[in-house]
Amino acid sequence: ETGVTQSPTHLIKTRGQQVTLRCSSQSGHNTVSWYQQALGQGPQFIFQYYREEENGRGNFPPRFSGLQFPNYSSELNVNALELDDSALYLCASSPEGANVLTFGAGSRLTVL
Amino acid sequence: GDSVTQMEGPVTLSEEAFLTINCTYTATGYPSLFWYVQYPGEGLQLLLKATKADDKGSNKGFEATYRKETTSFHLEKGSVQVSDSAVYFCALSRNTGTASKLTFGTGTRLQVTL
Q1: Cβ contacts (< 8 Å) between A66 and chain B: which residues?
Q2: Which residue among A38, B5, B78, B101 has the highest number of C-beta atoms inside a 10 angstrom radius?
Q3: Do the strands B11-14 and B108-113 form a parallel or antiparallel pair, or are they unpaired?
């Protein structure tokens, strides 16, 4: 069984630009969550998607948005990038109603 | 709101030493508790979990007991190896319908030397 895969693994953007990060969930998992992990910190919950709808959101502004597709893969979009958005973005998937998450290796975003 | 507090690192131990990483939490109700491990350049891997008071989670020689009276979930291992060097995160989860959000501590870096 394949795990959670994320792309790209690394990217560099400049302030004000927009970025899209992608995630393929583990086989059989229909729920996808996104977390932001700043350097030296624990991951912070951004939002969760279930059945293509946002189903829970953390304390992040609306310029952080997402999508989930019928095959359960997901995208995280961040508009108007700020320097503080530099972080490792982790995607995690889980079966419906489960609280055990399988994490991907992350996409490291650097904003200059 | 929910929060998790971990002991600050780095923790440096010699191989075969005893490990304790302290974790306490603040949450209403009865959260599930987890320890995740992050090896360099990788995502998080679930190490162990406990879903109710007095449960003991264990995996790969690591153990943690859910103590509701002290709101703690300390991680222990009797004899660490160099390969255990990583960052360890304590986390809690409360399910609300189909949503499940993890609240993490800031992580504790463990370095094991020969």
Answers
A1: none
A2: B101
A3: parallel
CB pairs under 8 A between A and B: 69
Start-to-end Cα distance in chain B: 41
- Out of A96, A99, A105, the one facing B32 most closely (by C-beta) is A99
Helix, strand, coil percentages in chain B from 3-state DSSP, rounded to 5: 5, 55, 40
Tens digits of residue pLDDT in A54-107? 988 999 999 999 999 999 999 999 999 999 999 999 999 998 877 789 999 999
Rounded to an integer, what distance in angstroms lies between the CA atom of residue B21 and that of residue A23?
A: 32
What is the least distance, in Å, from the CA of A105 to any CA of chain B? 4
With beta carbons less than 8 A apart as the criterion, state whether A101 and A93 touch.
yes
Mean pLDDT of B73-82: 97
Residue B41 to residue B37: CA distance in whole angstroms: 12
In whole angstroms, what is the distance from residue A95 CA to residue B74 CA?
27
